[in-house]
Design goal:
Chain lengths: 271, 250
């Protein structure tokens, strides 16, 4: 690759300050001979503490992108750097929140046991693990459910448990894969505000995958929109809306609507 | 009520048997009569010989089962989580599996001689397969999401085995162990009848050779009760301790 190719990326890195995550010319094809790769030449730089939403139609490879950032899948070309180190495998500093909370939680462990799992690789006593897990559950409004099994909880509560476990691993970055896709609208809005609050409190870098454009704008500092086949970043929009955001006020802000128009037109554009 | 209805058939059967026996309609030398063999069972229980025989049989049954369970889970996890290994080792194991376990008695006799080790070895051989096969399936069926969670938390191999693989698979593995428990008792009694002078099988064949027909029936009923109790026991383990592991873990 030439310097000329890297020029826009370098400009981006300057603009966003110290990048926590950098993707350079990342492509992904499960079959090397496939005519159309899943993801093609993704360049992205995410600043520490930034909340980046990625929105795109289903099948555009956004979940694959997240899996590569997590380290579950290796890119076919290009490289991914997190905090200056090449991503080669999953690590505790990047926690992933899966959409299917019912599979991501261990059904044979209580809510508390599921959160404690995140501490079990560490050299801390059982009592400390329990105490830390309960403190986390309390901040997620789950203290009363600590001894219940996930199967007995609603979808929204199970997703809270998964988020609590991800926070328990004390990550620098939270990777969220359509985390609220399976939840009803009311539960979803509550969790959106909660994730927003947690991200700014804990100064987390967040990458949030969704197919819900309004959710992407409502949560993000920036929104990347993707096209499908091959998956490419089509647009990258800075979201200049005050925080903390508000489910009514923010969504009625003229700028919110303008962002929505801009991204909507881009997403609807025929490929 | 269900219990009473279920008892109707055996009660009718044994009553008919008793009456036919007393009327001399059936030959007593081979068929005895329920009242006589219940009497024989009472004596075998009262002098402790039935309990001694049961203890000997159960000791070998559980020992063989324990060996088979440990080996079956070990092989099953290994083959289930390493597809390449299954392709390499699997066919060899598949050729061993159809060997009837009792056909190994002569070989086991050469290796271990008469005694408890021979019996345990033959039981273990018969029981390892159901445990191994369900373990392979159970491990293969674990949803990849569980392993992604384990990777994300950087769990070691030992932790993955203890915290993810075994709990996720134990519900299915236990089904294999239950099947193996039934097989273990069958094989134990068979080996005792054929070679090992021990336990329930030997008590039965000894009674037959002494022409104690009543005692043969007595031990048959006693073995049946023990088999039923074993099955009930494994069912209890299912209901009490394993219910939470059987929630959709795949």
């Amino acid at each position: 690759m030439t310097d000329q190719q890297n020029a826009p990326l370098q400009a981006l890195e300057r603009a966003t300050g110290r990048p926590a995550l950098v993707l350079r010319h990342v492509s992904l094809a499960y079959d090397a001979s496939a005519a159309i790769p899943i993801l093609k030449d993704i360049n992205l730089s995410v600043a520490a503490g930034e909340f980046l939403s990625i929105v795109g139609p289903s099948g555009c490879g956004k979940t694959s992108l997240l899996r590569m950032i997590a380290g579950h899948v290796a890119p076919s070309a290009g490289d991914i750097e997190f905090e200056g180190r090449k991503v080669i495998k999953p690590a505790r500093n990047r926690a992933i929140v899966f959409q299917d909370y019912n599979r991501a939680l261990l059904p044979w462990r209580t809510v508390s046991g599921n959160v404690e799992l995140a501490f079990e690789g560490l050299a801390i006593t059982k009592a400390d693990r329990r105490e830390k897990a309960h403190a986390l559950l309390a901040t997620m409004g789950l203290a009363h459910a600590a001894q219940q099994y996930p199967g007995a909880l609603s979808g929204g509560m199970q997703q809270r448990v998964q988020i609590a476990r991800c926070l328990a691993q004390e990550p620098k970055m939270l990777l969220m894969d359509e985390p609220f896709g399976a939840l009803d609208a009311m539960t979803r809005q509550g969790l959106q505000d909660e994730v927003s609050r947690l991200a700014s409190e804990k100064k987390l870098t967040v990458i949030f995958i969704t197919h819900d454009l309004e959710e992407a704008i409502y949560l993000g500092d920036r929104v990347a929109s993707m096209t499908a086949r091959p998956g490419e970043i089509a647009d990258l929009v800075n979201i200049d809306l005050a925080r903390p955001r508000n489910q009514l006020g923010t969504r009625e802000d003229p700028r919110f609507l303008a962002y929505r128009h801009r991204l909507f037109n881009q997403l609807e554009r025929p490929v | 009520m269900i219990f009473v209805r279920a008892l109707a058939v055996p009660i009718a059967f044994f009553t008919l048997w008793e009456i036919s026996g007393r009327l001399g309609l059936i030959p007593q030398e081979a068929l005895s009569r329920p009242s006589l063999f219940l009497y024989a069972l009472y004596y075998a229980l009262a002098d402790g010989s039935a309990f001694t025989a049961a203890a000997q049989t159960l000791l070998t049954t559980f020992s063989g089962l324990a060996v088979a369970t440990v080996a079956g889970i070990f092989l099953g996890v290994l083959l289930g989580s390493r597809p390449i290994l299954q392709r390499v080792v699997g066919p060899s194991l598949e050729t061993l599996r159809p060997i009837p376990s009792v056909a190994l008695i002569p070989l086991a006799l050469l290796l271990f001689g008469f005694g408890i080790r021979l019996e345990i070895a033959v039981i273990a051989f018969a029981c390892v397969w159901p445990v191994m096969i369900v373990t392979i399936d159970a491990v293969k069926g674990i949803h990849p999401r569980f392993f992604q969670v384990a990777d994300g938390l950087e769990l070691s191999h030992a932790q993955r085995l203890r915290k993810i693989i075994l709990p996720a698979a134990i519900g299915q593995i236990w089904v294999g162990v239950r099947v193996a428990t039934g097989i273990a008792l069958i094989v134990a009694v068979t080996v005792e009848i054929v070679v090992n002078p021990n336990g329930l099988g030997y008590a039965m064949i000894y009674a037959q050779q002494m022409f104690q027909v009543d005692l043969v029936y007595a031990y048959l009923i006693w073995t049946c009760l023990i088999g039923w109790a074993l099955n009930w026991l494994t069912g209890q383990v299912d209901r009490r301790w394993l219910a939470k592991y059987q929630m959709s873990s795949t």
